[in-house]
Amino acid sequence: MGQILSNPVIDKEHHSGEDRLTAFGLCAMQGWRMSMEDAHVVQPNVLNASDKDHIALYSIFDGHGGASVAQYCGEKIPSILQRQKSFKSGNLSQALIDTYLQTDEDLLKDPVLRNDYSGCTATSILVSKLQKKLVCGNSGDSRTVISVKGRAKALSYDHKPTLASERSRIIAAKGFVEMGRVNGNLALSRAIGDFEFKSNSELAPHEQIVTAVPDIIEHELNYDDDEFVVLACDGIWDCLSSQDCVDLVHYGISKGDMTLNDISSRIIDVCCSPTTEGTGIGCDNMSISVVALLKDGETVGQWFERIRAKNYNIEVSFEKRRRQVFTYYHFPKDDASIFEVTTKHPQDRFSQENSAQNLRSAGGSGNNNDHDNMEIDDTDTDSDAVTSNINRRGPQQAGSSANGPVDLFSLEALLGAGGIQISQGPNNVSYIHGSALTDMLASLSNAAAGEMVPEEDEDKDPQDSAKNDKKIEEI
């Protein structure tokens, strides 16, 4: 699963827009991972206004081993596409193949990136108004699907090392598949970058252990049946099937008050794990684009009305699907707080006052049984992952009050619970003060000296207390 954080980073990147061919809503979130390694392209038209055709380009790049290659693709892929002769001639399928291979070549010319060990999966679509065609190119385990009359149709297939065709290429290139991974390392078999798996000079690019060559699927557009396209990284597809995702988009459309951006954002909320317990799904970076296919002269508002009028009667909701994805977790019965992990930061969810109250409830009540409601999980979920998290069995357990669980990750709340405050002084300098500060310093001093702090004894010599007070003053 890789290294994960104690709390997810829930700041979301949003993009939306519309043109006369497509409209889109994109959302991306770092989540539980240590860093954000996804990138994307949202270009409603990659041609000039004077050109005869109108071509939209949408891509999702899911990085691994670092963000460098994915970020490069997000910045450079449109210009690399425009350079290809195949693109200029209107051969969109070949253009995507040439673009992916050219990106690898350009990366190898970069003095820094050629030695970078990161890579990224890539799934892209080109939508042509003149050709009335949609072309998808995919390398890796990101995925693209199209909704046709409410049903999910695959526009790409996940490239996993365990597939017979992928395994054959890997072995022929003197690689191996172990535990479902390329050379026991990479969980996917096609990607841009990953040059340590492309170092055999005797083999062509499509023959390497890992290749950037995409599979291509073309789809002739029928705007009466074809509704929208979803492109997403495997962080989404680990949690949802293609049909699940299409159903959720239709459900969002049926609500009547959600934009494409709102829908993509809510799908990420559905998929983000509420905790680091469980199987590890929902703990990845997440990126998703929902692309509406517009008829001639149709606005995005009219598109919503047209799709809504089909009245598919989707029986699932965002809340229901989230509960189904994370069946092991005890969500509150109230749906209003089911998305709290991705909609409220810890400092917003738990006030200092509530944290102090909960800390007293969990550890200061004098009842040792209260500790049984909380468990510290510091087991390694991966060989390179060491996490220490507070995992709760239910919303009203772990010493929590009706106002919410304890925020053990807020230093200010912890200090406040012990009678110590952090205040802002002149020139933005913070200082610590409070009635318990002296006791804390004395305890630290004794611990550093290897001493045990004795309990107060009524028969203790007053002179000893005076000596201790003198030590504290010296500190």
Automatic annotation (TrEMBL):
<dbReference type="InterPro" id="IPR000222">
    <property type="entry name" value="PP2C_BS"/>
</dbReference>
<dbReference type="GO" id="GO:0046872">
    <property type="term" value="F:metal ion binding"/>
</dbReference>
<dbReference type="GO" id="GO:0004722">
    <property type="term" value="F:protein serine/threonine phosphatase activity"/>
</dbReference>
<keyword id="KW-0479">Metal-binding</keyword>
<dbReference type="InterPro" id="IPR015655">
    <property type="entry name" value="PP2C"/>
</dbReference>
<feature type="region of interest" description="Disordered">
    <location>
        <begin position="346"/>
        <end position="404"/>
    </location>
</feature>
<comment type="similarity">
    <text>Belongs to the PP2C family.</text>
</comment>
<keyword id="KW-0904">Protein phosphatase</keyword>
<keyword id="KW-0378">Hydrolase</keyword>
<feature type="region of interest" description="Disordered">
    <location>
        <begin position="448"/>
        <end position="475"/>
    </location>
</feature>
<dbReference type="Pfam" id="PF00481">
    <property type="entry name" value="PP2C"/>
</dbReference>
<dbReference type="InterPro" id="IPR001932">
    <property type="entry name" value="PPM-type_phosphatase-like_dom"/>
</dbReference>
<dbReference type="GO" id="GO:0010508">
    <property type="term" value="P:positive regulation of autophagy"/>
</dbReference>
<dbReference type="GO" id="GO:1903753">
    <property type="term" value="P:negative regulation of p38MAPK cascade"/>
</dbReference>
<protein>
    <recommendedName>
        <fullName>protein-serine/threonine phosphatase</fullName>
        <ecNumber>3.1.3.16</ecNumber>
    </recommendedName>
</protein>
<keyword id="KW-0464">Manganese</keyword>
<dbReference type="GO" id="GO:1904289">
    <property type="term" value="P:regulation of mitotic DNA damage checkpoint"/>
</dbReference>
<feature type="domain" description="PPM-type phosphatase">
    <location>
        <begin position="23"/>
        <end position="293"/>
    </location>
</feature>
<feature type="compositionally biased region" description="Basic and acidic residues">
    <location>
        <begin position="462"/>
        <end position="475"/>
    </location>
</feature>
<dbReference type="InterPro" id="IPR036457">
    <property type="entry name" value="PPM-type-like_dom_sf"/>
</dbReference>
